[in-house]
Amino acid sequence: MMGSAHADDSAVILLYHHVSDSTPASTSISPEQFKTHMTYLAENFHVMPLPDVVAALQQKKSLPPKTVAITFDDGYRNILENGHPILQSLSLPYTVFVNPDEIGRLSNQLTWDDVKAMHDDGVDFANHTLDHIHMLNRLPDESKAAWLERVWGNVEEAEQKLESHIGESLKYLAYPFGEYNEVLAEKLASNGYVGFGQHSGGVSSYSDFTALPRFPAAGRFANMEPIKVKMNSLGMPVTASGVDDPERTNPIIDETITLKIDGNDVRLSQAACYFQNEKLPIEAGPGTLSYTLDTVLPTGRSRINCTAPSNSQNRRYYWFSQPFFVSRQDGTYPD
């Protein structure tokens, strides 16, 4: 399969948080709109359990056309009350990334009995850290080694608690706020974990399995027409991103970054890259797409999205997102 991009080497992972009319709008989708999303998926896509999608891509095995996986971050009770019945009625599998130290302790969270009952119904549960920390936050005078030991201890303790309650350890980590860096990604890989971000894009066998992209599908991203385009997107076959570390110590970025792209199905002549809704200057060559960014990155999270049409799949777009993370001066990150 390597050597060219294929629609059967691609999937989309969707990200939700709340299914509710009464929770923060930015991370919520109404039960009615969620039912619209799920019905559309059930009628037009092949929805698979996340572990099956990840395993197929890691092993470079073909996936059914238009494969999608559904995920939630944070173990909110409204997932069970409002989302689960819809998903069960349509026989759609899904995964919830939870914070074990918040399960059963906060009134808006699932209980461990809920988690076990949902797991018995086929729902997968995975790690979102013990308590939803900003993983890149540094304590005063904390060395990089001490920081890594502290945050990795949090991940491993959360994994142990999950396994003790449900008897399963997927070794998946969804980074809270989608924040990660090169050192953390290497730690995940060396310990056999798969990481999940909150930047956009399809996934493929070419993807970085320490930070798989997921499309946010709630809040301002819940509108049906744009989400249809994202559901139909393809994982861009990027072999080199031109960025070693998404965490930037210097927020000033004035460089040209080049993506190396495999295969001949990505129509680079019609590629486009965007930063904060502004189109960037780009250059496309054989198997390369370069974008130039001349700006001061904002504190917190930002991203560049690049897309290009598929030559073989009508009205489908390859999609790649490059996140950037910039801390405050004190080494912490905003929510």
Automatic annotation (TrEMBL):
Keywords: Signal
Primary localization class, coarse: secreted
Signal is among the record's keywords: yes
A GO CC annotation given for this chain: extracellular region
PROSITE patterns in UniProt: NODB
Molecular function per GO: hydrolase activity, acting on carbon-nitrogen (but not peptide) bonds
Keyword Secreted tagged: no
Subcellular localization, as worded in the UniProt entry: Secreted
NodB homology domain boundaries: 66-269
Gene Ontology BP term (one): carbohydrate metabolic process
Descriptive protein name: Polysaccharide deacetylase
